[in-house]
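Hey, I'm writing a tutorial for new members on how sequence and structure tokens pair up, and I'd like a real worked example in the thread rather than a made-up one. If someone can provide the structure for the chain below, I'll link this post from the tutorial.
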Amino acid sequence: MRKNHANVVTQTVHVVPPPYNDQLTGTFSLYLPVMFTYNSADVESADYRTFLRKRGFLRFAIIPLGGFVILYFLFSLKYAFNATPMFSFEDIPKPGWIDKPAKSPLVLRIAIISAPDESERRQVMREAVLRDIKESEMRFEYKFFIGVATGWLRGSALNLSVSRESQKHQDIVVLDEIEDIPERLSEKRFSALKWGGSVSNDTYDYFMTMDSDTFCRFNVMPRWMPELLNNENVNPRDKPVLIGRMANHLTYFQNRIPDGNKDASLEDEFVKGPWFQYPMGVGYMLSSSLAKTMLAAEPSLPHHIHYPSDDVMVGAWIAGLRNFQDESIKWESTAAHSPLPIHRLYPRPYLPYVVDTKIVDDKIGWHDPPGRSGNDAPISWNSVCIHHLSPEEMKTMRTLKQFRGEWSQ
């Protein structure tokens, strides 16, 4: 007798293990989901042993997978009962630097990396982050950087919406030659850098890039800077400086893809070298002197790098400006991006001279909220730039009683 399998139910189950911290690189990531499927018809037409034989891979996976699920459950309980609080204003007293007015206004050019479908985020940033900044503390110019939305129907509608928003607010740079896709994100960052350095470095202190889900307390940033720099007299208009929350990497890049290339799958050349620090997604600040130096490279710095290496790219620029001149360093190809076997490379220096940049790793002021990355911390008096916030959370930051008095009225 044949079974009728017309009403077969197929389910897909994702089991996501807890996050881990890579001790070597200091970065934080997640395992990919474990996936398996089963058909209800198998259970209906056979006993349990037959079912296991028909799905032989389950026979080898079900026991370790079951143990894995139990461990995940136990870890989840541990995190639930030992959850880090979102705020820690009571545990950390208000530091004295907050009440010390800036000696002179900090002058920034701010590029906010955005996407066509983030109109709500942009409006919240205008209202909760970029409004009512005291001129005695900071002066700035900002722009949102957006590529062209793809897709005939949805893309056309988004591009029209962005065009209207841009006309209304006059604060959006639409990159007409760059599709707004992950493969082009590094090109957006480089375009933002070119905008930042389009004026004389004598007219501003730092070029800053931030994501559209980052909340910055711009009125206290100028007061935090002397603490961050240990009261060292650093002139950003004269010295190369990078400020941000740092991680580590060893991949450098060489420019080989021309601008205007239509094939988004192509990338610049990858080169393996000494470990270096790079700024993670929360944002970063380049001194105006360093921005000018970067834009002097000929050919231009490599910027055809796929997401998520767009942040690594910025650190690789700075490390390349220092290390590509060093003939004692052994440079190699990478297995993932070059033909095997791995072979020796001889990268061309970006500039004919060495640029040694002062790198400031701000582990206190720049962070994520608890539970959202390996660089998380409770929001406190010391929080200057907070990453991975929703629009509603940004509004909440603005109204916190501890922060409320920071903005001009």
